[in-house]
Amino acid sequence: MGTSSAESVQLDVYQCDRYAAELVFLQQNTEMKQSDQARITRLIERIENYCESPTVARKPPVEARERQSVFGHAHYSDPEIYAQWQAFFQKPAICHHGEQNFQSAVKCAEMVAKQRQAFESRLDKQKEAKERNRRTELTRASKEISQETTTPPSVASKRDDTSYQLNTDIALDKNAGHFSRFGFWLSIVLCGYLFIELIKHMSRSSSTINDNKKRSFKPTYHALTSKLDNKKYIIVHRSMSPLLEELDIDGVALSPFGLFVFVSCPYVGEIEANLESEMWHVTREGGAQYFLNPLNAVKIRASKLAECVGAKSGVKYIVTFNSGCQFYPGKPVSCFEIEQVAFEVMRYTQFIFSYEQLRYFEQRLYSQSHALEASHQIAS
């Protein structure tokens, strides 16, 4: 495990610009709280240490930036439907490009969601109208065919009632046979279509499950151990601690600057992260799905860990994502990609715990099952 000085690490231009914009916003705020003043101090320290010579940020391809200008490009893979969505969508004025505060971002997401709901409702009505027209055409065609096949042959002008009744019965039998054959072939076609769609859905689900199984906390653990100073930070993997296994926490970093709780999120793609929602939505090539808000879970697990190890304060939680995630309408504060986690941990430099307390916390982590005990002794 190597050591790395925080002073030699420089952030990219976009990250530094975001910190500078947030600093200006907080300094212009007339009703400043104590937490805002602490945030200003951390931002100034971060800009002075990590933004002396910012690196060049990786820019997404031009095609990707053009697609992101219209919301919903990943939801409508059909070019015709996507063109209809572009014509229907009216971008709200609040959804401007650049930095947004949390309230405007949430309002933007709500307005875009309302437009998408109205557009999908209109699509459903169009599909129902097309289906009714198709059924009407099929019924009309079947009636025309049945009329052609059931036309009685020309007979003599004089026939008795018995022969006329016999010909009528024969025509009715032919009509019934035609409709039975049509229903038989139609049922075969529908069954084949449903079978193909079921196979596609199962293959898509199995591929998504396999991808999720391959993801783990190992990349984050390797990034932390290679970039953090092992004299100041103690990294504990969940496989090393029964307590972490019981609380379903992937890893913990113990340091004099705080206890950092890590929980990995295996989803990759375009993530709609709504902090007030219980479910988040992720869209990726091949499908889309909903998953539970990871911030709600990590808050509960971090508070439970603090109670178990006896830490009154200084416990911070971080949700790690693999590279390639795009958050909409904005990335939450406690969510970071794997390569950014070590920088976020090194950002805290104020001493909170002594090394004796850290050894006590480490001993509690390595202890056998005691996570759900009602009372714990607090470390002094």
UniProtKB/TrEMBL annotation:
Start and end residues of each NERD domain: 213-328
Annotated region described as Disordered, given as residue ranges: 121-160
Cited Pfam families: NERD (PF08378)
PROSITE patterns in UniProt: NERD (PS50965)
InterPro entries with a match to the protein in the record: NERD
Basic and acidic residues: bias regions: 121-146
Record-given protein name: NERD domain-containing protein
Originating organism: Pseudoalteromonas luteoviolacea (strain 2ta16)
